[in-house]
Structure formats: C-alpha cells, structure tokens
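Reviewer 2 asked us to include a model.

Predict the structure of this chain.
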Amino acid sequence: MKIFIATKNHHKLEELERILKPMGFEVLSENDLESPLPEVEETGKTYEENALLKAYSGLKVTGITTVADDSGLSVDILDGAPGLYSARYSGMRSILLTGSLRSPPPFRAAPDFPLFRGQNNPCLK
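Predicted model (structure tokens):
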C-alpha cells in the first residue's frame, strides 16, 4: 500500500520511513512529485487541525493516504508560549523568548514539544 508523507522536514520523513517500510508501506514524499506541494496556511487552532490541513493538502495532490504532522515548542514558564505559533517565533520574538528564560525557576524550565500526526484517507472521503 502506498502512503504519502506530507513534510518538508527530511528528518521527520526518515523517521516515518523507518517505521512504515518494515510494515509493508511504499512511502512516498514530496521528492517523488513533479512539483512541490503548495504551502499550507496553518490556520488551525490546534496542532491536530494544522496536521489535518497538511494531510488533506497532500491527499488532494496525490490521491493517496497522506500523513502529516504539526508540532511546536511550549515553555512552561511562558504559559505554553510560543506553542502553536512556534514556526512564526523568529527574529525579535526569539530574542524575547531567550531573554524570558534567563533565570526561570528550575522546576518549570523544561520545554515541551507537543506533536500531532494527522492522516487523511481517500477511502473515508
């Protein structure tokens, strides 16, 4: 069975290939397409919604079961920020994030990396 992985992250693709190939899946990615996938606007309010938006985009282009993911960096001391908006947290904002973490309480300093993988199957549409 063919499965399409909708990611531009080479490491995520390798990880999913390691898991899925031994299970008999033929893993396809953007590298197998004639042109790149369109950029997906991450308008979801959760990681799950964003992963499903990406998976649906891959399904529309390929017509095969598509797996996608969304993840972010959530820092306890910053009440979970930047969270869902991690990808947009660059430039000045990353300096502010670093500055905010200069002297956090030790029991709240560990960042969390929530991850959601979504799947869209053409048989379910």
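Helices lie at 10-20, 47-62, 92-100. DSSP finds three helices and seven strands in the chain. We have added this to the supplementary material.
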